[in-house]
Amino acid sequence: MRYAILSDVHSNLEATEAVLDDIHERGIRDILFIGDAVGYGPNPNECIELLQDRCKVLIAGNHDRASVGLTDIRYFNEYARHAVEWTRDVLTEKNRDALTTFLIIYEESADDMMLVHSTPKDPEDWHYILTLWDAEVNFHHFTNKFCFIGHSHQPFILEKVPSGEFITYRDKTGIKEDSRYLVNAGSVGQPRDGDPRAGYALIDERKVEIIRIPYNIKSVQEKMRREKLPEVLIERLSTGT
Question: CATH no. for residue 60?
């Protein structure tokens, strides 16, 4: 078992290419994508095509579904709505069709893993797992040893030990035989944990960890300004907030 898990690319081609280069250098073949290929950023078509080419599994996020009319955008904030509407206008027909084929939930039974963008409890309601209470509720909705999520753009590794207690890790932990794990893979294209570097998760037989990779943020910001995407979305790339 050796997987790279990517989430929340958000049309950020430079970040995606930097992450995929790092994965290639590590010799990892199996890449799993868990949602939001598009939204916010300036290169939706290129990112969809790159993910299709490189990933073994493709999960849909709320921005993916919204960009093809399968999720209501009225609950999105004004900046996210603007980006979704812009994305709808620039998507090719081929890539729009591709987004409709992305899965909502997937289980890798051989390695006892569940993959979902938001939550295993209500995967298409797009709720967030932000607290230990949220995590406790959702642990009752998967039986796998590992569940990987994204959506909040805030990476974490949460271990549930046999006694029912939780242990939280920021970036790395060894895997214990009797524990179960809920892992947020963070965000490739728009981190929101105060670290602007692209992030993704890596798992093998011994450990699970969050990897951070620098990329050319200014290049993405320049393209976003040319497309007149909201300035707040452009500036937050620099701060990771």
Answer: 3.60.21.10
